[in-house]
Amino acid sequence: MTYDDVNIASDGYFNNAFVGMWRGYKSTVEKKCNWADYRVPSSNCDFDIGAGEFNVAEKYIKNGWLDIALKNMAPNPAIIKNKTPVSQKLWWQ
User: Fold this and answer.
1) Judging by DSSP bridges, how do beta strands 30-37 and 15-23 pair with one another?
2) Which residue in 1, 22, 50, 72 has the fewest CB atoms around it within 10 Å?
3) How far is Cα 68 from Cα 72, in angstroms, rounded to an integer?
4) Cα dihedral 53, 84, 79, 87 in deg (nearest 10)
5) Residue 55 region, left (φ>0) first, then alpha (ψ -120 to 50), else beta?
6) Which band of pLDDT confidence, cut at 50, 70 and 90, is reported for residue 21?
7) 27-68, pLDDT tens digit by residue?
8) How many angstroms separate the CA atoms of 7 and 15, rounded?
9) How far apart are CA 8 and CA 4, in angstroms?
10) Helices (DSSP H) in the chain: which residue ranges?
11) What is this structure's pTM?
12) How far does the chain reach from its first CA to its final CA, in angstroms?
C-alpha cells in the first residue's frame, strides 16, 4: 500500500477521501459524511474558505471546528482562545 503524496504541495490537494452517508447502529437517521486528508471533498462552498489550505468559515466554528481554526491560526478577530478548556457538543450528539 502506498500513500499518494505526489501533489501534496498543490492547492486543493486531498487524499484518503470518503464521501457517503453515516447511520448510527440504533437509528435510521442518515447524515452526510465526508472526509479526507488536507481538504474535505464535496463540502458546501461556504464551509472551506481557505485559498491554498483548509480553513473553516466562522459560521461553522461553533459546530466543533474551533480546534482546527486555532491550529490554523486563521486571521479572524472573532476567534479568541479560552484560558480554560470549554467542552463543546460533539457533532453526533
Assistant:
1) antiparallel
2) 1
3) 6
4) 70
5) beta
6) very high
7) 889 999 988 887 888 888 888 887 777 888 888 888 888 877
8) 10
9) 8
10) 66-72
11) 0.55
12) 35
Planar angle of CA 93, 47, 16, nearest 5 degrees: 80
Query: Rounded to whole angstroms, how far apart are CA atoms 4 and 10?
Result: 13
Angle at the Cα of 63 (from 17 to 59), degrees rounded to 5? 100
> Closest by alpha carbon to 56, among 91, 82, 30, 21?
91
Cα–Cα dist 83/49, whole Å: 27
Amino acid identity for residue 18 in this structure: F
